[in-house]
Amino acid sequence: MRSQTVANQLRQEISRGRYQPGEKLNEVQLAERLDVSRNTLREGFAELASQGLVTRIHHRGVFIAKPTVADVADFYTARAFIEPNALRTADVDVPRLSTIVAAAEQALEEGDLAKVADANQRFHRVIVAGVGSSMVEDMMDRILALMRLAFLQVLEAEPEFHAPFVAKNREVMNALERMNFNEAADILEDSLISTPTAVQKYLSH
C-alpha cells in the first residue's frame, strides 16, 4: 500500500468520524492495521498534514486536527462558492440525491442522528460529484473530512445539530425535481451562508 493510498484511507476514516478532533494516532497500531511500513505511514501522515487533517508535533506524535472558528468560516466560504454553482451548471444526479434525502428523513424519524449526519454529508458530496472533476471532488472530500471534525465538536453540545438540514435538503430536492436549478442553488447558498455562525458558536466555547 503506497503512502497516497494510506492517506486516502485515513482521510475516508476521518470523514466517517472514526477519529476524534485532537486524538493522537498510534503509529505502531496503524501500521499493523494497514499492513504498511512505518516509513510509508509517515509519508501518508505528511500528505494528511499538508491537507490540514493532522498535526505533527515534534517528539510528541501525530494528532487529528481540531478545526477552529476561522477554519469553519473558510470551509463554508469555499462550499458556498462550489456547491450552488454545481447545482446551477453541473449534471447533478437528482435521483441519487432524492434517495439520500429520503434515507435522511427515515433516519430522523427513527431518531438515528448518526445516519442523519452521514446522509447530509453524502448529499453534499453527490452535488459536487456532478461537476465531473476529480480535482474538485478531491478538494470537497478534504473539506468534508475537516467539517466532520468540526461537527464532532458541535455534536458534543448539540446532538441534534444536523436535524434541521433534512428539511433544508428536502427544499433543495423539491426545486431540483421541478427542474428549477437556480432556485435549488439559491436555497443551498442561503443555508451555507447562514450555517457557519451556528457551528462557530459551539467551537468558541
TrEMBL record:
Annotated SMART domains: FCD, HTH_GNTR
InterPro entries to which the protein is assigned, alphabetical: GntR_C, TF_FadR/GntR_C, Tscrpt_reg_HTH_GntR, WH-like_DNA-bd_sf, WH_DNA-bd_sf
GO molecular function: DNA binding; DNA-binding transcription factor activity
UniProt xrefs under Pfam families: FCD, GntR
Leader peptide range in chain numbering: none
Domain HTH gntR-type stretches: 1-67
Keywords, ordered alphabetically: DNA-binding, Transcription, Transcription regulation
Protein's name in the database: Putative transcriptional regulator (GntR family)
Organism of origin: Corynebacterium urealyticum (strain ATCC 43042 / DSM 7109)
Taxonomy of the source species: Bacteria, Bacillati, Actinomycetota, Actinomycetes, Mycobacteriales
